[in-house]
Amino acid sequence: MSTSSSGLSTVLTNVNNAFSGKTSGIDVASTVAALMQLQEEPLTQMQSQQSAVQLQISTLGSIASELSQLQTAANDLKDSFGALSQKTVTSSDPTLVTATAQNSATLGTHAVVVSQLATTSSSYSDPISDPTTLAGTTLTINYGDPNNPTKTDTITLPGTIKTLQDVADAINNSAQNTGVTASVITDATGQRLALVSKDSGAAGNLTVGGAVTFHQGQAGQDAILSVDGVPVDSPSNTVTGIDGLTFTLTGADKNTTVQIGVSPDTTTAATAVNNFVTAYNNIMQSINAQYTPDSSGNLGPLESDAALRTLQTQMLELAGYSVTGLGQYVNLQSMGVEMQNDGTLQLNSDTLQDALENHYSDFQNFFQSTQGYGQAIGNMLLQITDPTQGTVSVDVAGLQSENSDLSQQITNFQDRMNTVQQQLTDKYSQLNVLLQQYPQQIADINSQLAALNPNSKS
Predict the structure, then answer these.
(1) What is the per-residue pLDDT across 9-45, written as a single tens digit (0 to 9) for each?
(2) Alpha helix locations (H) across 255-390?
């Protein structure tokens, strides 16, 4: 029995019971509720339709997110500063020098000889038994060549000095201090004041004078090296600005030549291709799922959505796009990214590895040339994901409009149902009064008839 039939039967039963005297009147609330089930059947249909539309919007939102991930993966392949432009660097002797490379670094090998490491200058005082003798005195710090310093700090110590730590703090906090860090060293000889240059190399070499004698702990000197026979002087053991490379000097041996090799980072490149394939497959699997029956035989919420068919076609075109004139690679399949029967992609690892190890220039051109695959699919994805004209965006906008219309229809219908419910309540409340009076009226009539004819039965 349907819900509407059940509701009507309940109403009729309630009224019949009241007329027959089985009950005193009717239950107005349950009677009206039963009648409202009949009235509200269109509301259930509209709510079911709205739920279906909202599920479509949610599913498209997930696909839109996957499209964004695909766009990110594609941009990483075509970006001239992205994954395919990364370099990896090797060193024949990491105990002497290592290096990192920027994207601009030239592929090849550099010969590096490190003759001397850069050092940071330090200076220390004689033991100071009475730090108060330094109160109000002046400390002079020269930087660089003692005979021709590049700069000088003249620091006047405050008259409130009580401890050697007060001296160190005063130096560190002085506005006249531009290049040293002070600390206190305590050992068996007593307490001494130590100064360390903030800058490594010869320019930071310290010469200190004042009320107490200072000794040089370590001289500041520049690193000396040669790169491909070109002499290089550096104040730091981190040397930049040479063909996009940053050298880190870890040891010195003027008799050892270190070979620094710069090559494409094939691991990062392979990861980028894998990321693209994964992102693409996520979309195709989401599309395919809409046309695949579940355990109950139901298809996905977008199985009849025309825009999804359009998107499926666009994805297949994107995966199969070909270019010419850029080397031996003309499409994804030629470098080992092969199309499957369900439209997804699968990597042939051997073919891809051969491209990365033996034909990297052609591989890179395929993705990064202005006429290459990366640029083409980048433009395609910009159109597909356009926030106003893109395939999914237009579809979602239409569904959101439909959802909004349904919301308004549901609201209007519910307002009407509230009025109907009140009308039914008033009507059946009046009927209930009559039905409650009916048994007494019958009894009164029977009584009157009995009085007119005492010998008859009621």
Answers:
(1) 666 676 666 666 556 667 788 878 888 777 778 888 8
(2) 266-290, 306-320, 349-358, 360-368, 373-384
- d(C-alpha 221, C-alpha 102), whole Å: 28
**What does the alpha-carbon distance between residue 139 and residue 123 come to, in Å, rounded to a whole number?**
13
Helix (H) or strand (E) holding 138: strand 138-145
For 19, what's the count of Cα atoms within 13 Å in the CB-facing half-sphere? Answer: 7
Burial class of 401 by CB neighbour count within 10 A (0 to 12, 13 to 18, 19+):
exposed
Which residue in this structure is represented by tokens 């305590």? 186
Q: What number of CA atoms fall less than 13 Å from residue 349's CA on the CB side?
A: 2
3-state SS class at 96: coil
Residues 117 and 201 sit within 8 Å (Cβ to Cβ): no
What is the spatial order of strands in the sheet that 245-249 belongs to?
97-101, 245-249, 238-242
Domain 120-218 has CATH 3.40.50: no
Average confidence (pLDDT) over 192-221: 96
Least Cα distance to 367 among 248, 440, 272 occurs for 272
Q: Please, what is the end-to-end C-alpha distance for the chain in angstroms?
A: 41
Contact 101, 87 (CB under 8 A): yes
Q: Which single residue is written with the structure tokens 């220390």?
A: 124
Element (H, E) at 85: none
pLDDT tens digits, residue range 51-94?
Answer: 999 999 999 999 999 999 999 999 999 998 899 999 999 999 99
Domain range list for the chain: 3-39+404-452, 50-82+267-385, 87-117+223-264, 120-218
SS3 of residue 450 by DSSP: helix
The CA-atom distances, in angstroms, between 317 and each of 64, 314, 377 are: 18, 5, 9
State the pTM of this model: 0.73
Percent of the chain with pLDDT over 90: 74
On the question of pLDDT at 3 being above 60, the answer is no
